[in-house]
Design a protein that fits this description.
6-stranded mixed sheet; 5-stranded mixed sheet; 22% strand; binds fe (ii) ion
């Protein structure tokens, strides 16, 4: 199975890059399932039902989010009705939405997608390790599900790597999101799970993690509230990872993908 995982889409330029490039990427790479992190798609914070619809129309099979999931309040009443839209599994009990979903591909194969959120430098979430452990225990890879993809939405590289090892041998891919900076540690872990600490954002890299650099700089240098942060508007780089799984659902290949904008240049060979 061929899976494409696209990192946090930031603002209008990120949306444009995703919507323009995803259909052709799906076709060129023969992708079976495409998952997109949309947590920064609406003005840099959160997403809206309309944007989700645009992403589905462009070829996203499922959308993950993160700490910004409810920044656009429209989503609070909407998320329960959209089975393809995830928020982190280990949010507090009573939070609307779901943290995992079973995606059925056109050919009938099933992909379980799970999102957990980290706690280091993040917020008061539930235990991501226990939450992931029990979700993986419920869905043995190669049993009723053909592939398992885990989005680890976290700040600390150590916490993300530890969650990767927790899932090793039991998931097809563990893809880190949230930092908006792609890491160069994509690999297949010893147990057969493809892993990357952060996929990187789909946004303008002439920025501070997707937001306008002047205002971002000012906020680091003063306690006086300045103008609101807004997304940078230059050409976006679409950042993703491409993964191929083999029999049993474990990974056979992981390749980073960076298309357009300032980080252009990485495409899977062949
Ligand atoms: Fe993000
Ligand atoms: Fe985030």
């Amino acid at each position: 199975m061929k899976i494409l995982y696209c990192g946090d889409v930031v603002g209008r330029t990120g949306r444009r890059a995703l919507i323009e490039r995803l259909p052709e990427l799906r076709a060129d790479l023969g992708v079976d399932g495409a998952i997109v992190n949309g947590e920064n798609a609406a003005g840099g914070v959160g997403t809206t039902p309309e944007i989700c619809q645009d992403f589905y129309a462009a070829g996203a099979d499922l959308i993950t989010t993160g700490n910004h999931v409810f920044d656009q309040r429209d989503l609070i009443g909407h998320i329960d009705g959209d089975p393809r839209l995830l928020r982190p599994l280990n949010m507090l009990p009573g939070t609307p939405g779901r943290g995992s979903a079973l995606l059925r591909l056109a050919d009938g194969r099933k992909v379980l997608v799970v999102q957990v959120i980290g706690r280091l430098f993040m917020g008061a979430y539930g235990d991501p390790f226990g939450a992931l452990e029990s979700e993986l225990a419920k869905h043995p890879l190669g049993g009723a599900v053909d592939a398992i993809v885990v989005d680890v939405h976290a700040e600390a590289t150590s916490e993300k790597t530890a969650l990767g090892h927790l899932a090793d041998g039991r998931a097809s891919l563990v893809a880190g999101t949230h930092t908006h900076v792609p890491t160069a540690d994509h690999q297949i872990l010893p147990g057969g799970t493809a892993y990357i600490t952060d996929v990187g954002m789909t946004g303008d890299y002439d920025s501070v993690i997707g937001m306008g650099k002047e205002v971002a700089l000012q906020r680091f240098r003063s306690h006086v509230p300045g103008p609101r942060l807004t997304p940078a508007l230059g050409d976006a780089t679409l950042c993703a990872v491409y993964v191929e799984t083999g029999p049993g659902g474990l990974a056979q290949r992981i390749a980073p993908l960076r298309l357009g904008g300032r980080l252009s240049g990485a495409l899977p060979d062949g």
